[in-house]
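Morning. Coffee machine broken again, so started the prediction first thing and wrote up yesterday's gels while waiting. Chain of 449 residues, entered below exactly as on the submission form.
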Amino acid sequence: MPSELLPTTRRALLRRLAVEQSHNRVPSLIAGLVRDGETLWVDSRGSVRTEPPTANTQYRIGSITKTFVAVLVLRLRDEGRLELSDRFGDHVPGTAVDDRPIWQLLAHNSGLSSEPAGQWWERVPGETPERFVAAVDGAQLREEPRHVLHYSNTAFGLLGELIARLRGEDFADVLRGEILDPLGMRRTTMAPAEPYAPGLAVHPWADVLQPEPAEDAAAMAPAGQLWSTVDDMVRWLRFLVGETGEVLHPDTLTEMCRPASVDDGSEWNRGFGLGLQLARHRGRRLVGHGGSMPGFLANVLADPAEATGVVFLANTTSGVGALATDLLDILAEHEPRIPPEWHPSTEVSEETLELTGLWYWGPTPHLMRVLPDGLLELSAWKGPGRTSRFRYAGEETWIGLDGYHRGEPLRVVRSADGSPAHIDLNTFVFTRAPYDPSAPVPGGTLPWK
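Came back before lunch.
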């Protein structure tokens, strides 16, 4: 493991970890930080059966499992096996959400109950898929079923069954074949494999422990069954910051990270994309997921813009606070990320270069520039305004990737000498001069006076 961090940084990180373990009486706790594809730091406190936990010690990761489910669903979409707008009942009929689009289950706003029918599912043996699906009836729907965030474990049990039916094999086998094996996550499993930490509860008023059950959740396994290690979760963090390999197209990951539902109003700080928890923290936009099962707490949080992430795993039912974001803050304060060196581009065509500079939408100046990855960015020149990136689609046409113009075509119209005359952005005409009379501005133009 690289040891690039300064001793003062490592000490600050260790102290924060030690305070968490000691003050909150956590039997064992291990955490790690990753940046630019490298593991910067891993440390632990407490013990697992008298030995300190290591980066290879398994813990149950709970609802982090849902992030894998979401990736499997998006893979099916990318293959054309389903659309996110499909009604869930088109693929798994016979439930109370037959008429709800699949994306609403991923974003936790389908209106389904947070927990499935029956006993507390996390502490008892799970039901078969057939019995589980049959029990998702009208009693499992809650008020305000549309476009309102209501976290639902039940929804992800159903999404696991959707995956199994469309793939024609068990959910666990699909997960292993499509994600875990390709990413080299050998120590992420449906059942614990030595070495692993036992699930424990700490008495609230005395320093004594009680073992927690670790039953097979069966049909509810997609909601929180997985066990994993810091090493494997570091690989998952690298996935979340863009190292998706052959598992998922980077554009699909970006789609998963867009807000689909929020739980604290227009100035949101917490919400969900498609199967991913989203958070704003001190100017960062974080993606990932927390996890809890009886006897375990876990969290993975990634900052894609900084290619940085954090993971912690603990074997306690409750008690871990803002450890993940605090560790990210310590790293940013002590050793902020050094940006890579700038190098000139050698692949910008003359036709693309001609599009750069100022363009006017009516009287409003906008700036077009070429980004390092070859995309175009159009933004307001000064002050607030719309900003979008565009990818070339051929035949003088670019397609918007984000912002107001996401999915919209930007078409370059050239004059007789081949120079760019104006831009047609989904009916909006951008010209080189404000209201250029030589351009086909809708409604026409008059001389300036």
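Residues 95 and 133 are 7 Å apart (CA to CA). Going to sketch it on the whiteboard this afternoon.
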